Amino acid sequence: MTLSEFMRQYVSVVSQVASLLILSGIFFIGVFALVLLVLRFWVQHRAKTLLPHLREGGTTLTVGFFHPYCNAGGGGERVLWTAIRAIQKRYPRIRCVVYTGDIEATPAEILGRAQQRFNITLPGQVEFIFLRHRGWVEACKYPCFTLLGQSLGSVVLGWEAIIGYVPDIYIDSMGYAFTVPIFRFFGGCKVACYVHYPTISTDMLERVSERTQAHNNISLIANSSLLSSIKLIYYRLFAYLYGVVGKRSQIIMVNSTWTFNHILQLWRAPSKTHIVYPPCDVSEFISIPLTQEVPVDEKNIISVGQFRPEKDHPLMLRSFKMFLEDTPKEARPRYKLLLVGSCRNDGDMQRVTDLKRLSEELSIQENVVFHLNVSFTELKQLLASSVIGLHTMWNEHFGIGVVECMASGTIVLAHNSGGPKLDIVIPYNNSATGFLASTEAEYARAMKIIFTMNSDKSLLIRQNARNSVARFSEEEFETNFLTVMDPLFNQKIT
């Protein structure tokens, strides 16, 4: 066989193999597409037989909220229950469904906690779809590639949700963007989302790029150029996927200017992205009387927020320790740091244990008091007895706890970033509404300034801060939420 004949046969074989591979690829793509279409048909056909009682009594449509931790008692849950109340008040014939993983609680207990924690009573009924695979979205399940693991886990949980019930309108109210395509494609739903905090942000990319250590960028990675480069590639790929699924939402609501800016960069859908400030029950807190004088016997600093790692409670303890060291020894017992918050799971409880241990290591345990899962009434009492409202989370997406502190009459000392910096602790009528800080020294210095401030100046700041928070009221949220969502509601109703 000559070389030319060999080459012709070789080219012929390669051509046949290539053709076979192409045909095989087309075949498998076709089969995959067919399977997706069959699944879509099955889900939508099956939806007509699920929970028929939701269509009784002249119900026009159903709205499903995906909120796996609806019983957690945080700011996201206030958004959920206030949104449902707003819908039920304006559209009594719309039925609301909540997809939750809180299988240990009954519907009555969940609604009772919403009333206890947020002072919210719903005018209508809510249907709960209990999800038994919430563990798939727990961060502890993914020690590596946590963002990707949780997002893929949310797909599993989203599939369980859509199998349980297919609503007319689907709202992801907790930040699981990867569930949106499931309900839009397989369920044929109109879809919307409320983003409290981007799953990934450009700030996170910058921290990895700059090799800055943080709770989501451990020292092992931050100290290695190779591992930092690998993680940066992973983050960029994930950010791209996050943008692809996020922009499938037909309406995008975000809770602050900070979140708005990041979602615009990641999802690139400006025409359907809206800032809807979260609801804060300012009317209840404004009822707390403003007193001119600071209590002499006990001077409280209060922090209101869930015990999550990003809240950076250790920074509070270390700053408070520095402040006490600069305080006369005989006066130190009068100062108390009140850590008020809810615990969602064993991980949060372990963080509380760790914080108690840290307070002992800093020798300030006598000055630190923990209040877990308090009632709304108790929260008001604690706020009324406090001088400073403390917040230390870097790039807090919004900061409902900060608003509550301002409304109650405490002087806010918040982190100089995110929502507090851009939306909340900003000048009002050209006057200050609080203080911002970033480091332990800055926080300690601000604490001293606030406690030594004359009563007239203190009262002026507190009054100004209280007047500024009307724009974050529950009434404002309900109005803005319904204004943004009405096109979907009216489209479905008509």
Provide a descriptive summary of the structure in words.
The structure is a single chain. This protein is an alpha/beta fold. The chain has helices at residues 3-47, 75-90, 107-118, 146-164, 180-186, 202-209, 219-222, 225-246, 257-267, 282-286, 313-325, 346-361, 376-384, 400-408, 418-424, 440-452, 455-468, 474-493, and strands spanning 62-66, 95-100, 126-130, 169-172, 190-195, 251-254, 273-275, 299-304, 335-341, 368-372, 386-390, 411-415, 435-437. The strands form 2 sheets. Strands 3-2-1-4-5-6-7 form a 7-stranded parallel beta sheet, sandwiched between helices. The protein has a 6-stranded parallel beta sheet with strand order 10-9-8-11-12-13, sandwiched between helices. The chain is globular and about 100 Å long. The termini are far apart. The mean pLDDT is 88.
DSSP helix fraction: 40-55%
- The helix count comes to 18
Query: What value does the Rg take, in angstroms?
Result: 26 Å
Oligomeric composition of the shown chains? single chain
Name the shape in a single word: globular
In percent terms, what proportion of residues is strand?
A: 5-15%
* Head-to-tail CA distance between termini: 77 Å
Mean pLDDT: 88
- Low-confidence regions: none
According to DSSP, the number of beta strands is 13
How would you characterize the largest beta sheet? 7 strands, parallel
- Please state the structural category: alpha/beta
Strand order of the largest sheet: 3-2-1-4-5-6-7
